[in-house]
Amino acid sequence: MAALDGFTVVDLSSGIAGGYCTKLLADGGAHVIKVESPEGDSLRRWSASGAGIADGDSALFSFLACSKHSVVVDPDRAEDTDLLRDMLAGADAVVWSRGSAVVGRDEFAPAAIASAHPHLTVTAITPFGLDGPWSDKPATEFTTQAWSGGVIGLGRGAQDRPPVHVAGQIGEWLAGAFAAAGTLASSPGLVDVSMLEAQILCLTYYSVSFHDALGRPFRDQRRLTVPGVATAADGLVALGCGTAQQWFDLCAMTGHDDWIDEQSDLSITEQANIHADDIYRWVRENRVDDILELSTAFRIPNAPVGNGANVTSFDQFAARGSFVENPRDRFTQPGPPYRTTPSLLRAPQPAPRLGQHTNLYRPNGHLGVKKGDFSAQMSVSAQEGAGLGIEGLRVLDMTSFWAGPSCTHVLAQLGAEVIHVESAARPDGTRLIAGVPTTEEQWWERSPIFSGLNTNKKSVTLDIRSERGVELLRRLVKTCDVIVENYTPRVLDQIGLDFEAVHRLRPDAIMMRMPGFGLDGPWRDKPAFAYVIEDASGITWLTGYPDQNPVEPYAVGDPNAGVHGLNALLLALAHRRRTGEGVRIEAAMVDAAVNVAAEQIIEYSAYGNLLQRDGNRGPAAAPQNLYRTSQLDEFSRPDDWVAIAVTTDEQWAGLVAALGDPSWADDELSDVAGRRRRHDEIDEHLSRWCATRTGDEIVETLWAAGVPVAKVMQPHRVGDLPQLVHRGFYEHVDHPVNPTARHSTLPMRISSGPRRHHRAPAPLLGQHNREVLSGLGLSDEEIAELEDHGIIGTAPAGLGIRTTKTG
């Protein structure tokens, strides 16, 4: 039995975000009824490569709509609206977004549905959220990414070109994953998902908190990540240095131990840029396979560079069966983003044709669903809805850096007791990467990144290299409902705390392991950081300029894994609530990544079209680009930009009118095909127009004309955006060491959720050792003995920790 058997979702969404949300729910066993207007979801006719869609449906639609039913509702027909009301009365959840004639009726707006049907969880996905000063402003995924700070992100790209967005409509996929989690985690009521807020969490690195706490941005200029994606003797290869130790190992691997300077005032990124020419020369002189093998031996993160044409052939994915055949149209698509035992997922069923199931839901359809009787026939009762009682759960959080902590942080914000296990010898890596000098008092407590990921949690330090530390960890496991870890696979295997061991200790425990590449396969032990996950999955391939190597987003891989792991945990909690059984979850980072990069694989497999990098242009809008304003940025550089994206002919007409109806905007540009042909010319005119205006002037003018537009924000400045202030996305959090700082919350407002998300600051290292260990029955004397032997501690033990700046 799948986790969500008997859970009925009415899908009133259009586009990728809602489609992916309901796909994740359908994969989990939910009965998803996709309600479409007579013309059908626009995704049925969508191809990112421009492939012709004849009488059938697009491949992307066929992927996203697996296992769903399609019901056509004409909002102008009374019997159809009656049918929709009946379906809503019998469902458990609704997923909603703008874009169809059905949702244009006031009666079927999110708040109206929630009011009329209080038993429903109503999840709405919009660019900015349902309320606030920007709630009705025109936007696209590209312009919300600019507002989020994600275009500049972690300093992506070189100074001699405009900053570059993360391509592949990534914000749509991320919003969809968060919407699915919000639907599962909520009691009946309204779940208001903001794509802008999802992109802030996944494309920037707690930049507002960093600036508030330390008085400086995480990075103050754009520069290429070195090595990043580089050209080897026979193709592209990706290498990374996410930590100081990895930079030192890279120096040794390339034969340049002389570059190692542990006392340098320069960050490792700055040092790598100094030696870039020599590093790239070394890469050019070696073959891809040799570089990958050598890098793995040196424990340097590495990956081949995946794209739609080659990613399915990589050894790891072939060995693990990561890709499957679409059940209707036979192209290749990613398998599920997580694996569970027992299986909580169902095999994908063919996507429906438009209106294929409409008659089944009419009063005399052969499903036997009669008007007013839909709930009894098709769904569980409202009392058994999706709200999973997260408050009160005890979670053992054996994770570090970003992917794992971002998953458990959501649980902590929703009321779970989360115990974050570290070691005095090896604290969570995010404590060490803020660039705080080790000469400062309690320097390891000052990382705003650690703080941003770990509020409301408790910290316990245990040295699991010792027999006593492992014994205490086992005792702690027995007290926890959920165990989450993202060590490399060999760590838990070595201490004898794998799936089987955990379930012997606590049979009803949910254990989730979050390896980079999986628990088996030839890449099992590869070091995995966000950027190599992006490289291997294809996310990197589309980001950058067509005449240069791809540019790593350097952000998406971790939080994307976190939100997908969260969805897996919520499915497991639903299963445990129903059966009392524990669940084993394998949520590999790369499996989550190939799912949000699915469009590349699908386009190539279905149509033979390899999607390519195109700078800041994209398939969903024309024109779409960044344009320099008349202003200098806050660092006195000519690096201030706006993002403009025109998705419809009506928006183009509004743009032309705002420009004063210039003569160059002739009739040929009135349709998207003409605008694509003359995109370069349009860019020249828009560049000249923007260059004489400030960002605020451009936004005010174009928003008034109905055109999606945004300022390209520095990530540390987004906390001042009026929309985010209105929605309370940032909360002020006090800290015993750092100044008070704004901390991001969840990318959704949950009507049944907490009014405040951050109830306690991130813990000091080992702050809760005594509380937690005494709860296991240890005396004060035993706890003191553990401190004396270094098994627990409240300060880094200095055992090989490298603290060179990584910013």
Automatic annotation (TrEMBL):
Keywords: Transferase. It comes from the Bacteria. GO terms for molecular function: CoA-transferase activity. Pfam families: CoA_transf_3. InterPro entries: CoA-transferase_III_domain (IPR050483), CoA-Trfase_fam_III (IPR003673), CoA-Trfase_III_dom3_sf (IPR044855), CoA-Trfase_III_dom_1_sf (IPR023606). Transmembrane segments: none annotated. Residues 326-353, 736-757 are annotated as: Disordered. This is CoA transferase. The lineage of its organism: Bacteria, Bacillati, Actinomycetota, Actinomycetes, Mycobacteriales.
